[in-house]
Design goal:
- This is Phosphotriesterase.
- Its cofactor is a divalent metal cation.
- It is built from ten helices and twelve strands.
- The protein is an alpha/beta fold.
- The chain has one domain: Metal-dependent hydrolases (TIM Barrel), CATH 3.20.20.140.
- The strands form three sheets. Strands 6-7-8-9-10-11 form a six-stranded parallel sheet. It has a three-stranded antiparallel sheet with strand order 2-1-12.
- The radius of gyration is 17 Å and the shape is globular.
Length: 299
């Protein structure tokens, strides 16, 4: 059997993942976003159906442990809509949790991550971690060490929230240099928020996947610098490292609330990519690359 992607309804051949939103949220809750929770299954289902109507076939939800990820609801939505959904384990930055949630040693955290990835009727398919602003604090290092253990036990990819897009090389130095996670099993998120092409090229040269997410998000260089970044990577031979996602984190950002939402990726961004960089580039970004980035190797 070849590589598989672990969805909330079970493993599927990676080749069947299809057109993928590589970083988004159907459910999300945090004290940092009071009153903006994503907790409505009907609204989440509407977003998935709107995405599917435009040709979308898969969504990777990066919501980790303790932030309202609702795995059973994800499975119900995947079954009802026919969209493949990949769930996450892991932990976000410490500010998203009560103190008692964080008081676990590295081995215990790794055990919890592995359990999420391997046990139960609804299993996670990746480990989500988070860096800090232009560096890594003690919590980030602690969680990334546990995530590396979980990766080595399961083969799961490690997806990284980069705070405002910064700290990519610090993350790779730790995960890949010290903790021996292969760069091709690391997905760096939010790079669009820090549009330093030198950093993007270095991370791609290391072999990591680069996720550009949150199109049309205000106050970030998401749209007007996006094509500069994608073109530079493609011209340097790194088109095979690029992923795109919506990163919808509030109810107001959903398409049903007149935000860009998941459909924007296929309604506006994909046609623009085809016009600017060609059909094969868009096919790689939306289909081929996610299938590789989130796959589990199998003999």
């Amino acid at each position: 059997m070849g590589p598989v992607v672990r969805t909330v309804l079970g493993d599927i051949p990676a080749s069947e993942l299809g057109v993928c939103d590589a970083h988004d949220h159907l459910f999300l809750r945090s004290p940092r976003l009071p009153g903006q929770e994503l907790d409505d299954p009907e609204a989440a289902g509407a977003e998935l159906r709107a995405f599917r109507a435009l040709g979308g076939q898969a969504v990777v939800q990066w919501t980790p442990r303790g932030m309202g990820r609702r795995r059973a609801a994800l499975a119900a939505l995947a079954s009802a809509t026919g969209v493949h959904v990949v769930a996450a384990t892991g932990l976000h930055q410490a500010v998203h949790y009560a103190r008692e949630y964080l008081e676990r040693d590295r081995d215990r955290l790794a055990e919890l991550f592995v359990r999420d990835l391997t046990e139960g009727p609804v299993r996670a398919g990746l480990v989500k971690v988070a860096g800090g602003f232009h560096g890594l604090d003690a919590h980030a290092r602690h969680v990334m060490a546990a995530a590396a253990q979980a990766h080595h036990a399961t083969g799961a990819a490690v997806a990284v929230h980069l705070e405002l897009g910064t700290g990519a090389m610090d993350v790779l130095d730790l995960l890949c240099g010290e903790l021996d996670v292969p760069p091709g099993r690391v997905v760096l998120g939010h790079l669009n928020r820090f549009p330093d092409l030198r950093v993007h090229l270095r991370a791609a040269e290391e072999g990591a996947f680069l996720a550009f997410d949150g199109p049309s998000r205000t106050h970030h260089a998401t749209d007007w610098r996006l094509f500069d970044a994608l073109t530079a990577l493609a011209e340097a031979g790194h088109a095979d490292r690029i992923l795109l996602g919506g990163d919808t984190t509030t109810a107001a950002a959903r398409s049903s609330a007149d935000g860009p939402g998941m459909p924007y990726l296929l309604r506006r961004l994909r046609p623009a990519l085809v016009a600017e960089l060609g059909e094969s580039f868009a096919q790689g970004v939306f289909v081929t690359n996610p299938a590789r980035a989130f796959a589990y190797p199998r003999p």
